[in-house]
């Protein structure tokens, strides 16, 4: 059964068993994703060192991190596995948290365990930016953690432009320390795992992933607060800035992917 309203999947104080199970889930998922993404398909990664560097610095607790990515397939989270080293991604101190649609991911008890242990946070589409899942992600950022966001709000089935949802704007504007934002754009993940039945992973497909330059929105946020902008105005301006950067990154990814496809 799907999660009932008010039901939650994370323990208040995770114990040793929970942490071990979480690390095992994350490591297993990483290895499977790495195998399917990088060893039986052809992936070109551009500027992955940018994300690697930012994630490795998380243990210093100097700055929280938000990655934003387009969403074309249910397997998109595997892109992060392809970008990062095993010891980096599978460290519980550095592993990302990511919002996931509760009506899709959390529909049965076994899925609840798997996705929660894998640090997927249930959010309910249509419930807005102020809901428990977003509060949870904000708390992780306030403790200098890492949250990965798909601001399109769901899998983009046809590749058409979708205005970004404002949840990412809320996380940035309300975080006690303005997070660094790293944009990521990928092309071809829906070839590896199509969005139509039969949902069987494919092999020998080409994927292009590009990591953009980090966005430091600290001065912009401080300026908006000094101008006494409303929370809604701040969320919109921040989200618009990220969306503009992602549109530019998309164009670069498309050019690189066209070259990738031409290669034998």
Automatic annotation (TrEMBL):
Domain called Phospholipid/glycerol acyltransferase: residue spans: 65-189
One of the record's GO cellular component terms: mitochondrial inner membrane
GO terms, biological process: cardiolipin acyl-chain remodeling; inner mitochondrial membrane organization
A family per Pfam: Acyltransferase
Location, primary (coarse class): mitochondrion
One MF annotation (Gene Ontology) recorded for this entry: 1-acylglycerophosphocholine O-acyltransferase activity
Localization terms from the record: Mitochondrion inner membrane; Mitochondrion outer membrane
Keywords, comma-separated and alphabetical: Acyltransferase, Lipid metabolism, Membrane, Mitochondrion, Mitochondrion inner membrane, Mitochondrion outer membrane, Transferase
Membrane topology type: Peripheral membrane protein
Catalysed reactions, as listed in the record: 1,2-di-(9Z-octadecenoyl)-sn-glycero-3-phosphocholine + 1-hexadecanoyl-sn-glycero-3-phosphocholine = 1-hexadecanoyl-2-(9Z-octadecenoyl)-sn-glycero-3-phosphocholine + 1-(9Z-octadecenoyl)-sn-glycero-3-phosphocholine; 1'-[1,2-diacyl-sn-glycero-3-phospho],3'-[1-acyl-sn-glycero-3-phospho]-glycerol + a 1,2-diacyl-sn-glycero-3-phosphocholine = a cardiolipin + a 1-acyl-sn-glycero-3-phosphocholine
Leader peptide range in chain numbering: none
Family, as annotated: Belongs to the taffazin family.
Designated name of the protein: Tafazzin family protein
Organism expressing this protein natively: Strongylocentrotus purpuratus (Purple sea urchin)
């Amino acid at each position: 059964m799907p999660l009932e309203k008010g039901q939650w999947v994370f323990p208040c104080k995770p114990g040793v068993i929970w942490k071990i199970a979480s690390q095992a889930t994350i490591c297993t998922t990483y290895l499977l994703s790495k195998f399917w993404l990088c060893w039986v398909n052809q992936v070109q990664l551009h500027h992955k060192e940018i994300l690697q560097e930012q994630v490795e610095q998380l243990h210093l607790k100097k700055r929280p991190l938000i990655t934003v990515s387009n969403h074309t397939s249910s397997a998109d989270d595997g892109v992060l596995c392809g970008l990062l080293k095993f010891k980096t991604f599978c460290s519980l101190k550095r592993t990302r948290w990511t919002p996931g649609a509760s009506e899709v991911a959390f529909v049965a008890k076994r899925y609840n365990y798997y996705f929660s242990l894998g640090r997927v946070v249930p959010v309910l589409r249509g419930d807005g930016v102020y809901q428990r899942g977003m509060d949870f992600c904000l708390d992780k950022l306030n403790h200098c953690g890492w949250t990965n966001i798909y601001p399109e709000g769901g899998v983009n089935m046809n590749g058409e432009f979708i205005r970004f949802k404002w949840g990412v704007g809320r996380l940035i504007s309300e975080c006690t320390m303005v997070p660094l934002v790293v944009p990521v754009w990928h092309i071809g993940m829906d070839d590896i795992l199509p969005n139509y039945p039969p949902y069987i992973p494919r092999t020998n497909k080409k994927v292009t992933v590009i990591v953009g330059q980090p966005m430091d929105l600290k001065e912009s946020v401080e300026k908006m607060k000094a101008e006494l902008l409303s929370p809604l105005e701040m969320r919109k301006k921040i989200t618009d800035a990220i969306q503009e950067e992602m549109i530019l990154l998309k164009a670069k990814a498309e050019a690189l992917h066209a070259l990738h496809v031409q290669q034998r």
